[in-house]
């Protein structure tokens, strides 16, 4: 299986002198193309930092990140940004959207930035994605006129505009009620089943339980992981229980 991203012995530190601390303390991780993985662990354990390192958003102090067969340390920042824009999608807890633009314009904004010439294609693609995630009617709405779940759907549309090879989601369901969270997870499952790899950071065992593999972080290290069968819509309780047992076992 081809790897979409490989992290080798990543060290990332913040602070200086005596205050210097390894927030990522030698993390190695591999994600297969098309894989659906999640990262759990206490607040402050380094989950977001790991995501920013693997996506080339932030540099690292030592180790290596190989994204889609390119060692990110061997190319300049601009090329890393190009890879990020063309091959990765990002979804955050609160979608960062511009208040003075409507939903549709927010969705197309990053794509317009990379490919201004193809306005018509971009619009068509955005409308198709909005239809697909069930927010067709909201195109002209202001971002303050939709629910949290709808806004997150718009965020997912934006992340999918460039047909990314992987979506990085940092607590994408963290601000949603459990029903909306499960609906967003249905959407991620669907997107993943079409071949896009997904890496989610989550606190919610019910969210993680729907992924293929769960990595557990503690103090800047991946301390354990469990591999589950592909989620087929059944036995969510059994899967949640396996996660809970593992967390008990490794005491996080
Ligand atoms: P998590 O996502 O698991 O909650 P983070 O990766 O956000 O954890 O942060 C891990 C640790 O790194 C925290 O202690 C946080 O305070 C620290 N940290 C993260 N970003 C920075 C930064 N830019 N400067 C200094 N410390 C940071
Ligand atoms: Mg975080």
Q: Name the beta content range.
A: 25-35%
**CATH topology-level name:** Rossmann fold
Average pLDDT, all residues:
95
The strands making up the biggest β-sheet line up spatially as: 6-7-8-3-9-10
Helix and strand content put the structural class at alpha/beta
Percentage of helical residues? 25-40%
Number of helices: 8
Q: Catalogue the unreliable spans.
A: none
Ligand inventory reads:
adenosine-5'-diphosphate, magnesium ion
Question: How can the largest sheet be summarized?
Answer: 6 strands, mixed
At the first level of CATH, the class is Alpha Beta
Fourth-level CATH superfamily: P-loop containing nucleotide triphosphate hydrolases
What's the total number of strands? Answer: 10
Question: Features of this protein?
Answer:
single chain, 252 residues, 4-stranded antiparallel β-sheet, 10 strands, globular, binds adenosine-5'-diphosphate, binds magnesium ion
Helices and strands, with pairings:
Elements: E1 3-14, E2 21-32, E3 36-40, H1 47-54, E4 62-67, E5 70-71, H2 77-87, E6 88-92, H3 103-114, H4 119-132, H5 148-160, E7 166-170, H6 178-193, E8 197-201, H7 205-208, E9 213-218, E10 221-227, H8 236-250
Parallel strand pairs: 3-8, 3-9, 6-7, 7-8
Antiparallel strand pairs: 1-2, 1-4, 4-5, 9-10
Helix pairs in contact: 3-4, 3-5, 5-6
Bound molecules: adenosine-5'-diphosphate and magnesium ion.
Account of the protein in words:
37% of the residues lie in helices and 26% in strands. The chain has a single domain, classed as P-loop containing nucleotide triphosphate hydrolases (Rossmann fold, 3-Layer(aba) Sandwich). The longest helix has 16 residues. The chain is of the alpha/beta class and 252 residues long. Helix 3 crosses helix 4, helix 3 packs parallel to helix 5 and helix 5 runs parallel beside helix 6. The mean pLDDT is 95. The protein is globular. The chain binds adenosine-5'-diphosphate and magnesium ion. The site of adenosine-5'-diphosphate has 10 residues, from helix 1.
């Amino acid at each position: 299986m081809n790897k979409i991203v490989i992290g080798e012995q990543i060290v990332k530190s913040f602070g200086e002198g005596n205050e210097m601390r390894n927030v990522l303390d030698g993390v190695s991780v591999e994600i297969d193309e098309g894989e659906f993985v999640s990262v759990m662990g206490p607040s402050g354990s380094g989950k977001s930092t790991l995501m920013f390192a693997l996506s080339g958003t932030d540099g690292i102090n030592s180790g290596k990140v190989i994204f889609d067969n390119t060692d990110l340390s061997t190319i300049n920042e601009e090329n890393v940004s190009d890879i990020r824009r063309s091959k990765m999608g990002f979804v955050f807890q609160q979608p960062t959207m511009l208040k003075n633009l409507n939903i549709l314009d927010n969705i197309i904004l990053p794509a317009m930035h990379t490919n201004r010439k193809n306005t018509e294609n971009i619009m068509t693609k955005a409308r198709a994605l909005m239809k697909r995630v069930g927010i067709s009617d909201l195109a002209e709405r202001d971002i303050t006129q939709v629910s949290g779940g709808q806004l997150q759907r718009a965020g997912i549309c934006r992340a999918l505009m460039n047909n990314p090879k992987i979506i990085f989601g940092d607590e994408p369901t963290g601000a949603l009620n459990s029903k909306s969270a499960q609906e967003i997870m249905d959407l991620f499952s669907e997107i993943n089943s079409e071949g896009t790899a997904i890496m989610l950071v989550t606190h919610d065992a019910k969210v993680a339980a729907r992924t293929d593999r769960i990595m557990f972080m503690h103090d800047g290290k991946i301390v354990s992981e469990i591999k589950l069968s592909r989620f087929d819509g059944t036995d969510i309780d059994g899967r949640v229980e396996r996660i809970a047992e593992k967390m008990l076992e490794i005491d996080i």
